[in-house]
Amino acid sequence: MSDYVVTFNGRKFSVSLNNGDIEIDGKKISGVSHSKINGNLNLLKMDNFTFEIPTIVKDKSNFTFVINGLKYDVTARTKLEEKAREVMKNRAGADSELQVKAPMPGLILSIKKNIGDEIHSGDSLFVLEAMKMENEIRATKDGKIKKILVKEGQSVEKNQVVLIVE
Fold this sequence. Notes:
Blueprint: E1 2-8, E2 11-18, E3 21-24, E4 27-29, E5 32-38, E6 41-46, E7 49-57, E8 62-67, E9 70-78, H1 79-91, E10 98-101, E11 106-111, E12 118-119, E13 124-130, E14 133-138, E15 143-148, E16 155-156, E17 161-165
């Protein structure tokens, strides 16, 4: 059995596929079968009707189906992928602040950014010396430096907030 969350037209549907049976939001759909002709063409049979549906695969989860000349954008993820996406969205929402913490106790050797600097995911934020090794701490999301809570040369504890990104 395969369980998916399918988003179409801004609405999410729970879809289960089990040995040719299809359930949408818990309702069994009878008289429907689906087969893949090739990477870009699907065949959908509903009762006595057959539809050839050209498909544009944008990436692993996003597709565009062309039905009667109209394009429909659809996202299909496994329930686990959808749950993980929701957790990440809630954890690091686009409008939320991100507290960048020291991953271990150590000494702040240098702070690479200033308050107000625009940053991008992967940018170096600060260098933390721990156990005689220099560790470069990088941004995990795009944003702007809102606050810097430590100074170069300052000792920090594990999970101490070093700076805040908005």
